[in-house]
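Dear colleagues,

I hope this message finds you well. In preparation for our joint manuscript, I am sending the Protein PIN-LIKES 6 (Sesamum angolense) sequence together with its predicted structure, so that both groups work from identical material. I would be grateful if you could confirm receipt.
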Amino acid sequence: MMDRMQRLLFQVLTEPQRGGESLLGTIKIAVLPIAKVFTMCFLGFLMASKYVNILPANGRKLLNGLVFSLLLPCLIFSQLGQAITFQKMIEWWFIPFNVVLATISGSLIGLIVASIIRPPYPYFKFTIIQIGIGNIGNVPLVLIAALCRDKSNPFGDFNKCSQDGNAYISFGQWVGAIVLYTYVFHMLAPPPGGTFDVEDGNLPVKNPTRNSFNALAKDNSPEQLPLLAEEAIPAHSSVTKKEKVKAFLKYIYEKLKLKQILQPPIIASILAMLIGCVPFLKKLVFTSDAPLYFFTDSCMILGEAMIPCILLALGGNLVDGPGSSKLGARTTAAIIFGRLLLVPPTGLGIVMLADKLGFLPPDDKMFRFVLLLQHTMPTSVLSGAVASLRGCGREAAAVLFWVHIFAVFSMAGWIILYLNILF
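The corresponding structure tokens are as follows:
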């Protein structure tokens, strides 16, 4: 009986499935990229540990800045620019739309989970965001690179696999940035009358100029004016039309948070799309014998350094552990469960429905795989940066630590499922 069960198990593991790959081969293809990511993160952790201390906190901060400001924009510009055309932009419309759908569905799941577990009062919206906002940029780029390097990967040639995958991921990042610095920034604001109990919590950040004008509109008494406010413009002073337009544009710029949205990776995405969609410019910049190709080639060389650098920095950031958090084990476990186990099946349903409705390019497996990854990733690292700005950085760091630890196992499982569905 035991021999028969062993033979049956061996047959299931080694018998070719759809796409000609055995279950054991599919597991290998899915697990190897995760193992590579884990290995590089562990090396970063080791370099940042007190026993080695080659990558201290200041070094990690500089490395993160280098990745975000130079290496990642170079990778996006070179990969997206070579792949994008105006026709492809029209065909790829569902990628940014999928980012919005992932945010909505993830936030709804976060709302349900938060309503059930009832986290500490100031962290209700925080819980929704930690479940609803996934990493649609750095981690997917790393996974695609690791997956495409494997000669047995089902997506074919390494160059086409990596170029298409990176282009699809980069094309959705600009929407993710808008979501992050508008919706997430608003949701992570401390509740009315509440506080996240951070240092300098009694020193609210104000805009002296705007507050001065608001105060003047309400009451001209000195008691109503804030300290250190800028001098108000006298009523009789002449203000030119040019100055009024300038003031209005500055107000719109601050109100829309364009400074936060127009980050280096987003600028690189916009430039790549603009140049890639104009045939003359694309030929001038992205063709191998073009006069400006040296710039693109330089970006490609720098972009290749992004993957190892960001993984070393991510592993190094885990050296401090979860730190002190007021969320509690119950809320933290619920966030991990919601983000890694409840959000992905919802995303799978969205992508399969879109495929049946004909919204996706036919026979493009990588396109579908990237859409699925957008629903499967751990909590966004950049949402942790926004949380720090809003005063709940310690809690965000604790969540990011545990979510990324458990994501190593959950992502392997979901990738196995996705590959079996796609192939």
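For the figure legend, we might mention the following. The radius of gyration is 24 Å. Residues 393-422 form the longest helix (30 residues).

With kind regards,
E.M.
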